Amino acid sequence: MLTISQLASYAGVTVRAVRHYHAKELLPEPERDSSGYRRYDAVAVVELIRIRTLAEAGVPLSRVRELLAAGEEEFAAAVEEVDRRLRAEIRDRQRHRTRIAQLTAGESLVLPPVAVAYLERMRELGFPEHLVEIERDSWILIAAQAPEQVPAMMAVKHAQLEHPTLRRLYLDLGELADCTADDPRLPELADRVEAFLEGAAAASAGAEEQPISADLVALLDAAFVQSFPWAPRLLRLLEQRGYTGWTDIRRT
Asked: b or e along 49-85 (b: 16 or more beta carbons within 10 Å of the residue's beta carbon)?
C-alpha cells in the first residue's frame, strides 16, 4: 500500500494534484488506516495515471470523469471532439501570434494601407515627424469610428498634399510646432488660411457635408488644440476672419 506521496511519485504528479483530483471527485479517496493515513493500491495508481494523461492531453477536468467511464466508441468520439477543440485553440493562438507579430508593423497595425501611404507621403515631402504623428493619431480615431469613410476622405487628403499652396500651409504649421501663442507669424498664417479657404470656396460648387460625426470633429479639434500651444490663438484669429472650427472649418 502506498502513501499519498508515493502515489503521486508513481503517477508523475504532485501531492497537490492528487488532492485536487480528490476534491473534483475524479479519484476516490481511500479510507484512512489506523494511523490516520490514506493508503493507496495499484488500482489508484493506474486511475491516477489515466486522469493525468487525459488532463495533459487537454481534456477539461469536467469531462475527465465522463471519459474514464466511457465505452470504446464513446471514448473515441469524445477524444475526437477534444481534438477538434484543441485544433480550434491552436488556430486561435496562431492568430494571436500573428497579431502580436504585427505589433512591430507600427502604423499599419491600426490604420488601413491608404492612410499609411498618406503618412509616408507626408514624410517624403519633408513634414516634421511631430506633425505626422498628430495626423496619424487623428486618423486612428477616424478609422476606429468611421472606417467606411476613410477611403473617400483619404482621396481628398492625398489630393491636398499635392496642392502646392495647401502643402506649404501644412509645412508652415509643422515649423510652428514649438512656438508660443505670441509668435508674430501667426496672424500672417491666419491670413493665408483665410485666403486659401476663400479660394477653395469660390472654386467649389458649395460646401460638402462633413462625413464624420460632430462629436468626432470636436474630439479631433480638441486634439489639435492640445498638440500645439499656439492653436487656441490661431483659432481665435480665424474666428476674427469669420471662420470657426479646424477639422471642419466653416464660415460663421
From this structure: ebbbebbeeebeeeebbebeeeeeeeeeebeeebeee
Query: What predicted TM-score, i.e. pTM, was given to this entire model?
Result: 0.55
Contact of 155 with 112, CB cutoff 8 Å: no
- In this structure, of 60-64, 78-82, 101-105, 195-199, the range with the lowest mean pLDDT score is 101-105
Domain extent listing, the chain: 4-102, 106-251
What cell does 8 get?
A: 503521486
Pairwise CA distance, residues 54 & 183, whole Å: 73
Report the alpha-carbon distance of residue 167 to residue 171 in Å, rounded: 6
Instruction: Please check whether residue 208 is in contact with residue 221, taking contact to mean a CB–CB distance below 8 angstroms.
Output: no
Task: Tally the residues of the chain.
Answer: 252
Please name the fold of domain 4-102: Multidrug-efflux Transporter Regulator; Chain: A; Domain 2 (1.10.1660)
Q: Is 29 helix (H, G, I), strand (E, B) or coil?
A: coil
Confidence of residue 205 (pLDDT cuts 50, 70, 90): very low
Residue 40 DSSP SS3: strand
Contacts of 237 (CB under 8 A, 6+ apart): 186, 187, 190
**What is the H or E stretch that residue 222 is in?**
helix 214-227
